[in-house]
């Protein structure tokens, strides 16, 4: 990819940065102290954007240079109508890290973002200092499929309004009773969907890329420190997928959150941050 200059400050009226990679603009969030301990890259999930990582980035950015880009065709990044693979998204992430001078980085990816993180570490190992793989899978023929509840989160009616779609998806992806007990999360999901609505075409392109994902043959080549975080009651990517992922990466640690669904950073925010900080501190001391 051709690289061009980074926008060092958000444009007037915007709360995000832009960087041009290969002639396309990518939007990203950045929070950093004056002297960060390391770089940390956050990669979003199917249908998600940088907004979903805002709270975590704000906390991690107190000690580290924390960056959360919008994938191509997502959020405030440029539209992209051609088919792509998760390896393409990993190459985008690699060019992003180089362009903003943030390599090597610890890479935190949730669900699809965790899949992209695996491809990034396999394709560009020199850019990755460590992996935190959240609610994700190596894919392949041995995958444990989503439950009926998890599939329902993926296949909501196409004509559903963006706010309602986001709220229904969050309810189905988190553990039973979470959104009833945390109505503020429903409103937050609705606001994110209103700001970054995802077209049916964009969703299908991401979904097709996920269906082709399989890093199983390459897991043994991942030698960076790796932490796998997963919810015990994840209906979208059931726990056996994380167990297989952790078993395939030499030295990987697996942390399972009891009674937790697909979004542990929302369902178990204090524990999630403690585990993430602990991993980063261990690797940077």
From TrEMBL:
Span of domain AB hydrolase-1: 46-269
Keyword annotations from UniProtKB, A to Z: Hydrolase, Plasmid
Transmembrane segments: none
Annotated GO MF terms: hydrolase activity
Pfam family, one: Abhydrolase_1
InterPro entries the UniProt entry points to: AB_hydrolase (IPR050471), AB_hydrolase_1 (IPR000073), AB_hydrolase_fold (IPR029058), Epox_hydrolase-like (IPR000639)
Name of the protein in its database record: Hydrolase
Organism: Deinococcus aetherius
């Amino acid at each position: 990819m051709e690289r061009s200059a980074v926008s060092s400050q958000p444009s007037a009226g915007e709360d995000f940065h832009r960087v041009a990679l290969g002639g396309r603009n990518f939007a990203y969030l950045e929070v950093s102290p004056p002297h960060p301990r390391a770089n940390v890259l956050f990669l979003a999930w199917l249908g998600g954007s940088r907004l979903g990582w805002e709270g975590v980035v704000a906390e991690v950015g107190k000690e580290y240079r924390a960056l959360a880009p919008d994938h191509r065709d997502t959020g405030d990044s440029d539209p992209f109508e051609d088919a792509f693979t998760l390896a393409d998204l990993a190459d985008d992430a690699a060019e992003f890290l180089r362009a903003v001078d943030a390599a090597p980085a610890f890479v935190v990816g949730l669900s699809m973002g965790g899949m992209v993180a695996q491809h990034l570490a396999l394709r560009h190992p020199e850019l990755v200092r460590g992996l935190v793989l959240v609610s994700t899978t190596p894919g392949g023929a041995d995958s444990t499929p989503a439950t009926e509840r998890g599939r329902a989160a993926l296949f909501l009616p196409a004509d559903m309004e963006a706010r309602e779609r986001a709220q229904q998806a969050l309810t189905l992806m988190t553990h039973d009773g979470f959104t009833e007990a945390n109505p503020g999360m429903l409103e937050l999901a609705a606001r994110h969907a209103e700001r970054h609505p995802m077209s049916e075409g964009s969703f299908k392109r991401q979904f097709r890329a996920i269906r082709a994902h399989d890093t199983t043959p390459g897991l043994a080549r991942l030698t960076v420190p790796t932490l796998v975080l997963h919810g015990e009651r994840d209906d979208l990517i059931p726990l056996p997928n994380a167990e297989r992922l952790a078993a395939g990466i030499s030295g990987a640690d697996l942390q399972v959150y009891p009674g937790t669904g697909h979004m542990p950073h929302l369902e178990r925010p204090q524990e999630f941050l403690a585990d993430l900080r602990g991993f980063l501190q261990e690797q940077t001391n």
